[in-house]
Amino acid sequence: MKLKKSSIRIRLTLWYAAVLLIILSIVSFGVYAFMHSRMKSMAQSKLDSDFTTVENVVKFSFGDLYDVLHLGQTSMFLITKEFTNVYYTEAWENIHFTIRFDKESYKPYRSWRSPEGRFFKIKQGTIPEVGYELAFAQDVTEIKENLRTLLTILLAGIPCALILALIGGYILAGRALSPVSAITQKAHEITAESLSERLPVLNPNDEIGRLATVFNETLARLENSFDRLRRFTADASHELRTPLTSIRSVGEVALQSPINGDAYREAISSMLEETERLTQLIDNLLTLTRGGSGKIQLNPQPTDLTSLVQKVMDELSILAEDKNQTLSMDGPSPLMVTIDSATVRQAVMNVLHNAIRYTQSGGRIRVLIEAASDGQAIIDIIDEGPGIPEAERTKVFDRFYRVDEARSREEGGAGLGLAIAQWAVEANKGRIEFCDKEGPGSCCRITLPMN
Amino acid sequence: MHILVVEDEPKVARALQKGLESEHYQVTVATTGEEGFYLATTQAFDLILLDLMLPGRGGLEILSALREQRCQTPVLVLTAKDTIEDRVLGLDSGADDYLVKPFAFPELLARIRALTRRGRTDQALRYRLADLELDCVTKKVTRGRQDIPLTGKEFELLEYLMRHQGHAVSREMLARDVWQVTERATPLDNVIDVHIARLRQKMDMPFKKKLLKTIRGVGFVLNEGDA
Questions:
Q1: In this predicted structure, what is the pLDDT of residue A50?
Q2: How far is B146 from chain A (nearest CA, A)?
Q3: What is residue A326's predicted lDDT score, i.e. its pLDDT?
Q4: Does the model's pTM come out above 0.90?
Q5: Using the beta-carbon criterion (under 8 Å), do B83 and A290 form an inter-chain contact?
Q6: Which one of B84, B171, B185 has the shortest CB-CB distance to A287?
Q7: Cα–chain-centroid distance for residue A55?
Q8: What's the N-to-C CA distance of chain A in angstroms?
Q9: What mean pLDDT do residues A188-199 have?
Q10: Which member of A272, A319, A346 has the closest CB to residue B216?
Q11: ipTM for the assembly
Q12: Could you report the per-residue pLDDT of A85-137, keeping only the tens digit for each?
């Protein structure tokens, strides 16, 4: 439909005018019909009262109609008896109306147009006692003219009112919609570079104000995630630059002066090691971006969480052994949870790997698994490392965040392990956090819903 | 053995050519899709290494066209795209294997060996290198006359190295094939290093001749040589 495509302003105006047209038509018709029937009944009651007066005069004055004339109340009437005029008033002569009492077409009231073009309402009747037939006339020409004037005014007024309504409605709708235009204009100007701008809110309580407020909240969230993305890109470039710098300087130094074969081997090996670091970094980044954009397909299956953790521990236990650390686990088996085992495994592995890495030689790492009463499975990974200051407990999950920059770099971490763990746990509708712990070290708690 | 390399990046093409030639393969390089398609349909090759992002006709297009012409040469696809969908698309178009850039050269060699011997069963029951013997059935490892007791993981590791003896093996290959970890973002490198160290302690340290060598930046190799 064409109307659907036009602007809200035009549609509002048209609706407005249409409703007004309907109301005006109903009112006009009502007024005209009321006036018409009122005039008609007034004429009829006048004729009725004239008839009664004459009837009374004829009956009680025995035909002396002089009184009637002198009463001055009736002006036009005709009395006939057996087709002979008995009496008629002076005014009657102009009417040129002949009484016809044929029984079939008898109507008590009828309209009559005189040859002069005047309109009359006629009442006919009989007085059987004296054998009179009577006709009364009432001049309704003025009434008819008044009614016609009224009709003309009404018919001319409706289009005028309609035009006024269209103009007024158009202006009114325009004014009501002007904040929308302002918002549209502003929204047009907002791009990724100017996300800090906000839409104008003229009145926060009206519909458009609420719309603008909601829009602004969305913009705020967008700005926030763009900021995070920007920071992430900056951090990522920085991290990529580090191994690149190593590769470049090792290569340049090796070429600077002639060296022997072993030294070349050494240089190339060192460059390859950095390449490996770069590759891993990019793999990690890809995992995170794909995870963040929901590109990784999860396959939740009922899994024994305890045995999953046990397998991760078995895999990493050799690292703990190497540092003479004790690795212990305690938990109910089987503990069935519905999870995507690959991602949860990755999360547990990253956290446990950190625990082993940051706990000194001979230390102890404990893993406690329990089924909490609220339908949550909890994995606590408790280490004896340097611990995480309370202020940094949420920041450690940020990408590239390191508690001790120099130290972790030495260990070869890129600061993405916990970010990946967080993504993996949250993708399985769980939570990961560092909780309070007595004594040194940290306690990482992974909470997963059991069903 | 004749290999066709279809790769538009000149540095990578040259490196592949040199690397493969040093492994005694005969190599022909095509730098565009059209050239690759022309060569593949006019000459006989034992294997095609195909880059997917090529100027002109893309790798997938060439692959489908080759398969439509009933060209049965095994195709190993090299690409920087590594999502599951990309892999499926590549394999559906008729690729025999898929290797994601940047790849480790030892891994490329291993895949080429696997593809070119396809059809022959190659699962040996017993491997031997110098005086080192590994029996896949009894799970026993001996060196000279001496039994070498290994843990399960160490045995799997040695078996894998023995199967690829003389060829370098990267950590990535070990993670995927011995540890069965397919996600690339897992911290297994340290674990592999410690296992290698322990294995070396048992099967190499007590003996004069060292067989298990670390190639820095590349991985590990089991051979009789000095390097």
A1: 81
A2: 25
A3: 93
A4: no
A5: yes
A6: B185
A7: 78
A8: 50
A9: 81
A10: A272
A11: 0.76
A12: 777 777 777 777 766 655 556 677 888 887 778 888 888 888 877 778 888 88
To the nearest whole Å, the CA of B189 is away from the closest chain A CA by 10
- Helix ranges, chain B (H): 10-22, 33-42, 59-68, 84-92, 105-116, 152-163, 171-177, 189-203
Judged by a CB distance cut-off of 8 A, whether residue B195 touches chain A is: yes
Mean pLDDT to the nearest integer, A33-57: 85
Q: Which residue has the tokens 């130094």?
A: A253
User: Which of B187, B194, B195 is the closest to A353 by Cβ?
Assistant: B187
Q: Which residues pair with A78 in a beta bridge?
A: A88, A135
Distance from A284 to chain B by nearest Cα, in Å?
5
A177 vs chain B: nearest CA distance in angstroms? 48
Residue among B82, B185, B188 whose CB faces A284 most closely = B185
Name the DSSP letter for residue B171. Answer: H
Segment B143-168, tens digit of pLDDT: 988 999 999 999 999 999 998 888 89
Residue A70 to residues A46, A61, A66, A67, B199: CA-CA distances in angstroms?
Answer: 18, 13, 6, 5, 148
- Residue B172 is predicted with a pLDDT of 87
Interface test with B, best of A281, A286, A315 (most B CBs within 10 A): A315
In this complex, is the C-beta atom of B186 within 8 Å of any C-beta atom belonging to chain A? yes
* Sequence-separated (6 or more) residues with CB below 8 Å from residue A413: A354, A357, A402
Give B-chain residues touching A347 at CB under 8 angstroms.
Answer: none
| Cβ-Cβ contacts under 8 Å for B70 (sequence gap 6 or more) | none
pLDDT on residue A1 = 45
CA distance A377 to A59: 115
**Secondary structure of A103-167 in the HEC alphabet?**
CCCCCCEEEEECCCCCEEEEEEEEECCCCEEEEEEEECHHHHHHHHHHHHHHHHHHHHHHHHHHH
Residues of A in contact with B171 (CB under 8 A): 276
The beta-strand segments (E) located in A345-419 are: 364-371, 376-382
Share above pLDDT 70 across residues of chain A, in percent, rounded to a whole number: 90
Residue type, B133: E
What is the distance between the alpha carbons of residues B176 and B192, in angstroms, rounded to a whole number?
A: 11
**A68, pLDDT greater than 70:** no
